[in-house]
Amino acid sequence: MDTALADPWAAWVGGRERxxxxxxxxxxxxxxxxxxxxxxxxxxxxxxxxxxxTHKGQISFPGGSLEAGEDVVAGAQREAEEEVGLDAAQxxxxxxxxxxxxxxxxxxxxxxxxxxxxxxxTLSGEVAQILLPSLADLRALPVLRxxxxxxxxxxxxxxxxxxxxxxxxxxxxxxLHDLLTHGxxx
Length: 186
What we know:
23% of the residues lie in helices and 32% in strands. By secondary structure, it is α+β, with helices and mostly antiparallel strands.
């Protein structure tokens, strides 16, 4: 059976034109945007440990810098395994989303994937907590919007999702916003 026909998320990611970035001075990174396989999908997020040197306590997708010669899919899967113990055998990669950048110099490619309804996950030293909010719950939130001007003058929208005492913002919120506003409305 064709995955795109069976899964509206696969059809969506496969049927859109992906926006790429060319940022040669930025470090390449990838994140795994894992959606559980159920009628009301949940998205895999982490709360970063307070012990980390950067991004302490922030909400993020599992991910990080690519290793030499590594592609974005392999990097996202490796990082998800390191951070939350997600075995690659549990991951069905659907495709890649629009590239995003961070103000601290990362060029990130989000990898959209399906996970089992109850994925087997374990915390690592990098992760203080695993979050699995449903897309329906996130869509129901009041989205806080603001904008910031880049050094080249481009105005960039910023989003914040306040969910159950957590503040989802930055690159994670930009990727979530794309999913919630342009992805299948199930």
